[in-house]
Amino acid sequence: MTTVNVELGARRYPIVIGAGWHERLGELLAPHFPPRPCTVVTNAEIARLWGDGVLASLAVAGYRPDLCIIPDGETHKTIETVTAIHDHMLAARHTRQSGVVALGGGIVGDIAGFAAATLLRGVAFIQLPTTLLAMVDSSVGGKTGVNHAVGKNLIGAFWQPQFVGAELEFLSSLPEAELRSGLAEVIKHGVILDAAFFEFLERDIELAVARDAEVLTHCVRRSCELKAQVVAADERELSGLRAVLNFGHTFGHAAESLGGYAAIRHGEGVAMGMVAAAQLAANRGLCGAELPERIAMLCRRAGLPTQLLKYSAEDYWRKMGSDKKVKDGRIHFVLPTRMGEVQLVNDVTRDEADAVLATCMEQ
Ligand SMILES: NC(=O)c1ccc[n+]([C@@H]2O[C@H](COP(=O)([O-])OP(=O)(O)OC[C@H]3O[C@@H](n4cnc5c(N)ncnc54)[C@H](O)[C@@H]3O)[C@@H](O)[C@H]2O)c1
Ligand SMILES: [Zn+2]
């Protein structure tokens, strides 16, 4: 078992990473959130698989956990589901000393985190991610929130957890497509910040797909270390440092959104988006022509799609321009300059985007 700390001064918290430790959850959590009443938020399927073990481990250590089941799926990542959690917790007479434990993927984590941030002006929040994507990305960094009819993740708050526990054993029941989707964010961390980590993935990606415990543990640990450094340096995405994590997300979000969030998973959009952004960088001469090919090759080996969904260039440009990350009317792109290094640019022209779409979109 290893621990990575997110250094945020008084709000510093640990990410505990390992396989087969969740029966000791209560004991490990106690120094960060002393035994108290708390609500475990999860969905029916994850409750069936892992709920009893988590509740028992909390109860043994003196916590008084109750269970709040929310519906599965992105369509339920709404303010109504947040209200349902509030209703449950207020009916159970929870106080400001209580906590919210999110047991699930990024969807459960984002919703439960926002419920924790807003109940009684904020209660303690604990993340127990059960998808690879949540372990390497969404459970770390404090972004919580839900979707609005106008767009994804438009209602939310920065609300840091007090403890993140990545139990690799939870991944044993994860559908393969979800595991692959999480690998896209792992690959992203290598491209933006760590060439040696990317090379590790080039050696061992098949082992990661096969859920080799050692390889997956390294994927989670290194991703958390890299994301923790970025979050500690720019917690609220103010200086631009945190924006590097958006690599692949400009084209990727547009593809996800054009597909109505039903055609592809988040990580699949990120894989397509990374290849497109790297191609844009290569077309500009910012990086060599081999970089987009290396990224595409690794994504293909991870079983991820590398060509953008087919929509018109007009659709893509419009979607990219309506993203919440647009500033002063300019679309921001994160472009690689070489493996492990990226640069933020805000002067990409429509012609450049069209040229990328012409070569990086499925035919
Ligand atoms: N807050 C952030 O910083 C951040 C970052 C990236 C993504 N996100 C958000 O995360 C969400 C996507 O999260 P996700 O990819 O984890 O998907 P998800 O939460 O929808 O989980 C995927 C599916 O796997 C199931 N599942 C989860 N764990 C399982 C397990 N161990 N065994 C069996 N089934 C399991 C879920 O019930 C669900 O059906 C999106 O809403 C996205 O916006 C947030
Ligand atoms: Zn992402």
Structural overview:
There is one protein chain. With 363 residues, this protein is α/β, with parallel strands linked by helices. The chain is built from 13 helices and eleven strands. It has helices spanning 25-29, 44-60, 79-91, 106-118, 132-138, 176-193, 195-209, 213-233, 249-258, 266-284, 290-301, 313-321, 350-360; strands at 2-6, 13-18, 37-42, 64-69, 99-104, 124-129, 143-148, 151-158, 163-167, 333-338, 341-345. A seven-stranded mixed sheet has the order 1-2-9-6-5-3-4, sandwiched between helices. A two-stranded antiparallel sheet has the order 7-8. β5, α4 (106-118) and β6 (124-129) form a beta-alpha-beta unit. The chain starts with a strand and ends with a helix. The model has no long low-confidence stretch (mean pLDDT 96). Residues 43, 45-46, 49, 72, 74, 77, 104-108, 110, 130-131, 133-134, 137-138, 141, 143, 153, 170, 173-174, 178, 181, 266 line the site of nicotinamide-adenine-dinucleotide.
